[in-house]
Amino acid sequence: MPKENEVQFTKLIIVEGNHERDFFTAWLNHLNLTEIQVLPIGGKTRLAENLRPLVKQPKFSQVESIIIVRDADDNPDGAFQSVCSALSGVNLPVPGSPEHYITQNNIKVAAVITPCNGRVGALEEILLETAETDPLYPAAIEFISTGTRTLDQTQARLAPPPHKQGKAKIHAFLATFEEPDKDPGKAALAGVWNFDHPALNPIREILEQM
Amino acid sequence: MINHLSIENFRSHKHAELSDCGRINILLGKNNAGKTAVLEAILMLCFPPNPREVLIVLNEQRGYKPGEENSELWDSYFYDWDSTQAIVLTANERSYASRLNVCQQLFVVAQTGFTGVYTSGSVVEGQNALAKTTGLNFKYQYEEGYIEKKVTSLKRKSSQSLDPKAKEIINRISPIAFIPSKGIANPQDEAERFSRLEKMNHHHEVEDALRIVEPRLKRLSVIASGKSSMVYGDLGDNHLIPVSLMGEGMVRMLSIASAMANNKGGIVLIDEIENGLHYSVLPFLWKMIFTTAKALGIQVFAATHSDECLHAASQVVQKNSFTTDLRLFRLDLHEGKTAVTDYSADELAVAIASDQEVR
Predict the structure, then answer these.
(1) What is the rounded distance in angstroms from the CA atom of residue B243 to the CA atom of residue B210?
(2) Would you call A4 an interface residue with chain B, using a CB distance cutoff of 8 Å?
(3) Chain A closest CA to B268's CA: distance in Å?
(4) CB pairs under 8 A between A and B
C-alpha cells in the first residue's frame, strides 16, 4: 500500500498541512486537474527537513514540476525566503519571486505565498473573498471585527493579530453552516467555496501552467 | 570498517558505489535491485582468499545444489552474463583485500593435478593428455601483495594447500559471516559457532537474544549425536529440543546472534533480516545488533524490504542515540545502471514521521 506522502505523480503541490491538502484536492478535482498530487509535508518549520527525504523518494526522479504553498503570515518576504532556502538546501531550482516559475534541469518550481501578491495573512484570506456574496458573510466578518474591538477596549485577553484575522473570520463564517465544525479544507471538500471566483485566479494560473 | 565500496560487472550491477558506509548499513530496493548481490560482492571481496568456498556458498544461496556444476554458473556471476568483462570489487578496508579482479579463463588440467592458464597452441590434444576446462581466476590485492587463485571446480575440498603468504593473510584478516535470506543454517555450523562462544563464556549473549523470541528459554546446549552435533534449547520441559524445531524465528535469531558474537572486529552480512521474525521482535533485534556491533567493532550490512523493520531500526537509533552509526542505501536499477541513494538516520526518521517512502 502506498504511503500517504509517497511521490506517485510527476506534478506535486507541497502544502503545509491537511487543511490545505483537502482544499487543493477539492479544487484540483473541480478544475479536472487530476494528474497533480498534493503532499501535506510543508509545515512552516519543517519544510526544509521534510524536503530532504522527499527528493530521495524512489519516484522523485520522474517529477517535472513542483509548487510549494505556504502562508505569508505577518512577513511575506520572510516566508518566500524561507521556501527559497529550503529549495536551495536540496538543490532544487530557486524561483526569483513568489508566484513565478523557474525551470532548471528539467524541473519547474514555483513558490506560492498565500494570500499572494505580497499581502500578509494566509490562504484563508482568499477563501473569504470567494464567500463575500454569501448572506451570512457580513455577519461573520462583523462578529470578529466587533470581538476584536471589544477585546482591544477591555483588555480582557489578546484578540487575533491582523495576520490571523482571516483565520478567525473563516471559522466564524464556517460556524454558520448546518455542520458548524468544518475546517476550511473539509469545507472545500463539502463544496462551500466558489472555486471559480476571481480571487483564486493568481493560484489557478500557476496550477494550469504545471 | 568499509567506508567505500565499488562493484563493477558483478551480477545485476554494471557499476555501483556505496560511499560513507556506517557501522550498520541497511540496503533497500525493489526485487531484483541487486541488494543480495551487494552482500555477495562484500563476501567475495572480504572472505579469506578461498574463492571456491565463496562460490559454493553463493550458489547454494541462489538455489543450486551443493557441488552442482554446470556451464551457466561460470557466467552467472558476471553482469549481463558477459564474462568477457572482468568483475572488479574494491573497498578501502585494509583488514581485507582492497581489490579483487575476477575473470573467466580457459584452464588446462593435467593428470598430475597441475592447472595452468590455457594459451592457444600450447596444449597437445590426445588421449590421457591435458584437458581444457572453464574456470575463474581470482586476483586479490592485499597489503602484503597479490594472491591469485583459480577455481575450476565447484565441489568442496576437504583441505587445500596454501602458500605461506596466503596462510599469513588468512590468519590476519578479520572474520566475515553471511546469513542468507532463507533456509535453515547448517545445524553443524551453528553448533560449532555456539561451542566457540561457550568456550569463551560468551554464550549468554546468544541465549539472551533467543529469549526475545522465546521467553521460556532457560539455556542452550550443544548435544552431539554420532558425528554431528546440534544446538538444543531447554524450555523447562523434561527434555531439550533442537533449536531448529522451535520455529523459523528462533533459528534466525540464533544465526544472527551467534554470527554477531563470533565476528569481533569483522563484518556480518544479513540478507532479508526480518525473515521469520514477528514485527514486535524487530526493535529488540536491532537493539542487540547495534549494541553488539558497537561493543565488538563489527560492521553490519543488512538487506530488507520491510517497512516494520525500518521503523524498528529508526526507533532504536533515535531512542539510544545511535544516529551516527546507521546508514541506508537504496538501490534502483534504471536502464541497466544502478543508482544508489543514501539516507542518514535523521533523514529516515523524518521520512517515517512524514509518511514518505524510502524503500
Answers:
(1) 10
(2) yes
(3) 27
(4) 46
Residues A79/A70, Cβ–Cβ less than 8 Å: yes
* Contact yes or no for B356 and A2 at CB 8 A: no
| pLDDT score at B320 | 92
pLDDT band for position B159 (cuts 50, 70, 90): low
For B357, which of A3, A46, A50 is closest by C-beta distance? A3
Instruction: Tell me the average pLDDT of chain B.
Output: 87
B298 secondary structure, DSSP code: -
CA gap B217, B215 in Å, rounded: 5
The residues facing B228 across adjacent strands are: B225
Give B202 or B235, the one with higher predicted confidence: B235
Cis peptide before B48 (omega within 30 of 0): no
In this complex, which of B339, B350, B356 lies closest to A6 when CB atoms are compared?
A: B356
Sign of CA dihedral B265, B283, B31, B180: positive
Residue type, B202: H
- pLDDT tens string B80-112: 999 999 999 999 988 888 999 999 887 766 555
Query: What number is the average pLDDT over the span B187-204?
Result: 86
Distance, in Å, from the CA atom of B188 to the CA atom of B198, rounded to the nearest integer, reads: 15
Residue type, A109: V
pLDDT in tens, A148-170: 999 999 999 999 998 899 899 99
In chain A, pLDDT over 90 holds for what percent of residues?
Answer: 92
A31, A38 contact by CB (below 8 A): no
Q: Quick check: B359 and A50 CB within 8 A?
A: no
Q: By the CB < 8 Å criterion, does B103 face chain A?
A: no
> What pLDDT shows up at residue B118?
46
- Alpha carbons B158 and A40: distance in angstroms, whole number: 62
Contacting residues of A for B347, CB less than 8 Å apart: 52-53, 56
What are the distances in angstroms from CA B313 to CA A95, B24, B316, B323, B329?
38, 10, 5, 10, 14
CB nearest A3 (choices: B339, B343, B356): B356
Kindly determine whether residue A5 and residue B354, on different chains, have CB atoms separated by under 8 Å: yes
Locate A51 and state its grid cell: 524536503
**B residues 7..66 contacting A (CB < 8 A):** 30
**Residue among B332, B339, B351 minimizing CB distance to A53:** B351
Q: Do A46 and B354 touch (CB under 8 A)?
A: yes
Give CA–CA dist B333/B339, Å, rounded: 6
Which residue of B lies nearest to A54 if distances are taken between CA atoms? B356
Of the candidates A41, A52, A58, the beta carbon closest to that of B357 is on A58
**Mean pLDDT, residues A100-111:** 96
**Percentage of chain B with pLDDT > 90?**
48
Cβ burial of B35 (10 Å; 0-12, 13-18, 19+) is: buried
What pLDDT shows up at residue A78? 96
